[in-house]
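FW: tagging you since you asked about this chain on Friday. Here's the raw sequence from the shared folder, copied in full. Didn't touch anything.
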Amino acid sequence: MQLAAPERGLAARRRIAAAACALIAAAVPTAAHSQEATGSWTLDTSILLYGEQDRTEIFEPVARISRLFSNGHRLSGQFAYDAITGASPTGALPSGQLQTTTTPSGNTVTIAAGAVPTNEFQDQRFALDGEWEAPLARTLKSTLGAHYSSETDYMSLGGSASASYEIMDRLTTLTAGMGYNADKVSPIGGTRTGLSDGTVAVQGLDNPKNVTSGMLGVSHILSRRWLVGLSGTLQAEDGYLTDPYKVVSLVDSTTLEVSGQLTEKRPDKRQRASLLFSSVYHLNEDVFYFSLRGYSDDWNVRSGTLDLRLRHELANGKYLQPHVRYYSQSQADFYVPGLIAGQALPAYASADYRIGPLRTGTLGLTYGFHVKGMPGTVSLRAEYLRQWLATPGGEGEGEGGGGDDDRAAGGGEVRAGPVTTATIDPASIQSNMPPLNIGSFLIGYTVNF
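HL: got it, structure written out here
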């Protein structure tokens, strides 16, 4: 099943973040790599447990193995498995009366009065990634990568290439890269026409989705303790970008009661751009990590991310690393909490929270240590994320509600392509949408041999 973030977002965010973070990854070796000897192997394993309050649960084991050869070449491969279960909001509004909906698999579901409509699901995802890193000269390095993932209704196949060149006595590193993904979306129950009642679907249709990305970056060693970097990414998507399982409620203009629903519809093209500034500063013992990221796209989504980490060294190779993150996002042009029944339909409309006015705050802590008598390093990471929604319209941050599998409430004048819908009172909608609490726990193990 094509899933809402973070389910479906897991794969997409990895691909996007990989390009944005390639600069720092190339300039600042990981702890594991810094300990590698020529001709050694490194094994990184982890198990992620992720849970949303009364929503999605994820179990994700990952294994990555890499080999550093004597000529400086490195070959690595990674396998990931996701077991995903839970419930995902459909995008429909809560109603003061019972609602009956049909799921993509054809089952009928009754939603209690005042409850956020959701669809239960379960899915499995398998992903394989490979990477070949080769020094072309003393100051020039190239990296080639390949990716494949598959789940019930989504397949992704892609490749990437990047090069890093060191100048100014190797104090400055220039990085350039590009990637391409050819994906296929095969909705359960067939592909439905956008902004329709969803009763008619084309069966057995594989909808193409193509993603082309490019990245340029520079990092510079300011001193023996301080490294900074700046990278920019551009990404072009075209093809089937609609979420086939999301809907938009039709609302009576007088009573504001839900009177029906339509399938959502999004444009078939999207241009994204982001700029990432990163800084790593080595204190006497500890290391401070700082990053600030800005993002925009031609759907009019704007976002900013602030990320802070401090690795505090303890005795006997142990460490603690607290983590603080804040994320803020504006809504897309065609985001709507609902459409007024009887009005002319806009060209595009979606009530998906992921393109609404979203805010998240994260607090986390990682503890790393060595187990006596066993090689390698064990790490334990726990994080708490609180997610809520601001009032749509782009001005202010009136308290809304929502979560990683929720959608935004309405308020103010809502833009929906060329058509503007009538005002929907946010108080009548947001009261049933409190902020969402999300927790995750990860166990990791790294060993060189």
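FW: Residues 1-35, 393-432 have pLDDT under 50 and may be disordered.
HL: agreed, and The helical segments are 9-27, 31-34, 427-430.
FW: great, closing this out.
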